[in-house]
Amino acid sequence: MDWSFLTPEIFTYVILPVMIFCARICDVTMGTIRVIFISKGIRYLAPVIGFFEVIIWLLAIGQVMNNLTNAVSYVAYGAGFAAGTFIGMYIEEKISIGLSSVRIITKEDPSELMQYLRSHKYGVTSIDGEGATGRVKMIFTIIQRQDLPHVVRIIKEYHPNAFYSVEEVKSVAEGVFPDRPARGVFSWIDSLRFYRKGK
Question: Fewer CB atoms inside 10 Å of the end CB: C or N, the chain?
């Protein structure tokens, strides 16, 4: 194969910036996922990710420092950081690990909604409340994050005018959750969180 095209200029201004860009994507993606894992209580996997993250970062910053006069490397470094952040958030959203707390406030009778949720093995707690326009019913449930789209769809189906909010949950002790088939490595990652399933 003819490598005559690979001149020092092409390496400096094309290949090297591409390498820096890819390295930054890798280490920032890992860093974003690591921070998200820490926030969700997955403490055992985060240090492992951090180990590889910092090694890749050292390789990337080392190349930048060795080519301080190469402005294209700076652009590649910054672009890799931006792309890595986006990709890290995208991956975290897709694997949907962790728990979410859903709070529903409605003026109507929520019996059918509660019955549906309980029939699908969601833990549900309800209390009476007083809102700005009168008496309301408040419903609380802790769900797997992967179930959130399904639960929101059910809320809108039974109570389209209900107010609901969703919050991240770091850890729980006990609880009632629907049985879910294993999801390979994502199921294993989620199992590293600190919570115990209720009986």
Answer: N
- Domain range for 116 is 99-196
For residue 68, count CB atoms less than 10 angstroms from its CB and return exposed for 0-12, middle for 13-18, buried for 19 or more: exposed
Contacts for 23 with CB less than 8 Å, ≥ 6 apart: 56, 57, 59, 60, 63, 80
Domain edge (last residue) among 95, 122, 146 = 95
What is the pTM (predicted TM-score) of this model? 0.65
Residue-wise pLDDT for 123-168, tens only, equals: 899 999 988 888 999 999 998 888 899 999 999 999 999 999 998 8
Structure tokens at 27: 């280490």
Q: Domain ends where: 51, 78, 95? A: 95
Does residue 58 sit within a domain? yes
Alpha helix (H) ranges present in 11-145?
A: 16-39, 46-66, 71-95, 111-119
Are residues 103 and 50 located together in one domain of the fold?
A: no
